[in-house]
Amino acid sequence: MSRTRRTSGVTRCWADTNDMCFSPWLNSRFLRQLAGIESHYYQAKTEIRQFIRKIIKKKLADDERKTLPAIQSKDKNIFLNLATDLLRRGVFTLKNVEDESNIIVFGAFETTANAVYYTLMLLAMFPQYQERAFEEIKAMFPNTGDFDVSYADTQEMVYLDLILNESMRVIPPVPVVSRQTSQDLQLSNGIVVPQGVQIAIDIFHMHRSKKIWGPDAETFNPDHFLPDNIRDKHPYAYIPFTKGIRNCIGWRYALISAKVTLAKLLRNYRFSTSFPFEDLYFVEDITMKLKTVPLLELQKRN
Description:
Blueprint: H1 9-22, H2 29-35, H3 38-64, H4 68-72, H5 79-88, H6 94-125, H7 127-140, H8 151-156, H9 158-170, E1 176-180, E2 185-186, E3 192-193, E4 198-202, H10 203-207, H11 210-213, H12 227-230, H13 251-268, E5 269-272, E6 282-283, E7 289-290, E8 297-300
Helix pairs in contact: 1-3, 1-6, 3-6, 5-6, 6-7, 6-9, 6-13, 7-9
């Protein structure tokens, strides 16, 4: 079970977690040592923990210099504010804050970055959609350079929303998700899945099912998410953040941050590539990978 390890601690931890998810015996530290991945896993966890601990200590130090009313007025929708408030009230220990912060960083780091890059890549391959997105953004932000994007602005980016949804349909950031049945589960075809069975849900191939998305399911077309086209789809036909009570807790923030990033990039640059969409070779991991990552050419816009 050898693989080339990358330099990012988060990325290495993703890779090792993928191994353990689909090879449950690797949850044993002894077996991880036998498989030769324990040192990588430990190093990755250590790097992430140190980074998170530094952020938490800085946050606590900043709070110590402020009065209590100023601290309490902090936005409770910001995770770190909520976690450190629970720490001050004795609900959380410092380890609880670190553990919860680790989950947030672990779940958001590579998925959001990939979603932004894959969207830019697809727009470079399908320039007609890129130009429509550019015109929408230019109408909102006439001048190039740096500009502030409010939450209200992101809600006005209607076509960019179609593009981002379609990008995550064609290339879902997490292609497979696993669940374990807590009780016997009867499927719609009558088959009963016993309690305690681990199930892998293939998001990648479901998102590309022609039975659900039509004959052009395997290509990129934002029109798939026009109201008339999406209205009659099953609510679980599109699940880039999974669905139900165990869905991604940061999905709203992920969409907003991705739209802000894409808006600023598309307003300032035109993206192009000579790499054809048909030559993309997908490698299913805990996050979606490409065998060959296309290079993008950037041209400054006026």
